[in-house]
Amino acid sequence: MPSRCSAYKCWNNSNQGYVLVRYPSDEILKRKWIAAVGRGKNWLPNNSQRLCEVSSYV
Ligand SMILES: [Zn+2]
């Protein structure tokens, strides 16, 4: 099953050749990513969720 980018309105997935990265384990960094994906403060990524390389959240 291809993994899809979890950013708001981003549909890039691994089948299209995008590199998808896991959310960082570092809490502070992870919070920055969560703020940047635009899904709201209460949204949390689960272990299978990824972000694509073109999303400049890092
Ligand atoms: Zn993306």
UniProtKB/TrEMBL annotation:
GO terms for molecular function: DNA binding; zinc ion binding. It holds the Pfam family THAP. Residues 1-58 form the THAP-type domain. Keywords: DNA-binding, Metal-binding, Zinc, Zinc-finger. It comes from the Eukaryota. This is THAP-type domain-containing protein.
